[in-house]
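hey
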């Protein structure tokens, strides 16, 4: 399933901004009540009835971690002030463990053969 990036969503949301209004959810520049009903209705209409804002935040953090974005930058984007809360969203998946194991195995192979670099190419001597 495709979930648009934060940058894409921000660029689209700017089209609907009311001058002088900093609210993301509003009606003609005025605060609206609870977003829960509207969110549920929008997700159902899009076929994403299970989706919660929390899921989007967790997915964004996971993607930023995998992309190698510095933690300080990722925290600023996600709005987390402390590492302890940020780390609750940084879920380790099975594919992360597999990738770590593969990197460790590659490192060990290189250590056993000092004439090889991490890329697998030989160095000239």
């Amino acid at each position: 399933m495709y979930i648009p990036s934060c940058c894409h969503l921000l660029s689209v949301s700017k089209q609907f901004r009311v001058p002088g209004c900093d609210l993301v959810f509003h009606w003609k520049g005025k605060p609206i009540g609870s977003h829960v009903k509207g969110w549920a209705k929008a997700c159902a209409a899009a076929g994403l009835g299970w989706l919660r804002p929390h899921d989007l935040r967790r997915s964004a953090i996971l993607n930023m971690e995998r992309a190698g974005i510095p933690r300080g930058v990722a925290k600023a984007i996600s709005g987390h002030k402390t590492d302890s809360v940020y780390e609750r969203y940084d879920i380790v998946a099975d594919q992360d463990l597999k990738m770590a194991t593969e990197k460790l195995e590659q490192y060990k192979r290189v250590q056993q053969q000092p004439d090889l670099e991490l890329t697998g190419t030989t160095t000239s001597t």
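The radius of gyration is 21 Å. Residues 21 and 30 are 8 Å apart (CA to CA).
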